[in-house]
Amino acid sequence: MFYFYALTFCCLLWLLFHCSVNCSDINIWRECNETYPVPDATLISFRNNGSIPDENNITARCFTDCYGKKTNMLTSDGSFNWTTLEHILSNFKMKHTAMDVLGKCRKDPSDDECMQSYLSLKCVAETILSLINAR
Ligand SMILES: *[C@@H]1O[C@H](CO)[C@@H](O)[C@H](O)[C@H]1NC(C)=O
Ligand SMILES: *[C@@H]1O[C@H](CO)[C@@H](O)[C@H](O)[C@H]1NC(C)=O
Ligand SMILES: *[C@@H]1O[C@H](CO)[C@@H](O)[C@H](O)[C@H]1NC(C)=O
Ligand SMILES: *[C@@H]1O[C@H](CO)[C@@H](O)[C@H](O)[C@H]1NC(C)=O
């Protein structure tokens, strides 16, 4: 299971880490794209840095919601799953707890659950990228 999380989040930040992983083989991307079909540019951008170019598009937002829930980064109600985030951070050898680093990423519940999930995941990706770049 641990490897699974590392792998999927690795794919989110794929180009940065140059992982030797063929992300298109990963079922989560395919399953979510089947339910919420998005252009390749959206997938690539989200994978790179957690942002999507078409964040006003509800299908694109819900793709990220689907991704976050299927990877267990988010719970079914859209909150963070701290167990999973702790696993992810330990993979990147962070010195702090996930709550210390990512606590600021918690969003207030909103009517647009997919937007909330998107902003939460984008914040996670941005935070981890900035920590890595600061090294
Ligand atoms: C996502 O779905 C769209 C529409 O079915 C398809 O054109 C596209 O190739 C799919 N992308 C991936 C990466 O599977
Ligand atoms: C994220 O990656 C996409 C695709 O490479 C790029 O177009 C976009 O500018 C990046 N966004 C940020 C905030 O870095
Ligand atoms: C959202 O994006 C999809 C894929 O590009 C497109 O088919 C759909 O029409 C867009 N929806 C809206 C409401 O713009
Ligand atoms: C949180 O993620 C773990 C795996 O990291 C999973 O076993 C657990 O069921 C998840 N909890 C919730 C509330 O989704």
Automatic annotation (TrEMBL):
InterPro entries xrefs: PBP/GOBP, PBP_GOBP_sf
Organism domain of life: Eukaryota
CDD domains listed in its UniProt record: PBP_GOBP
Keywords: Signal
Gene of this entry: OBP4
Secretion signal, residue range per the UniProt entry: 1-23
Organism for this UniProt entry: Oedaleus infernalis
Xref: SUPFAM superfamilies: Insect pheromone/odorant-binding proteins
Entry GO MF terms: odorant binding
Name recorded for this polypeptide: Odorant-binding protein 4
Pfam families assigned: PBP_GOBP
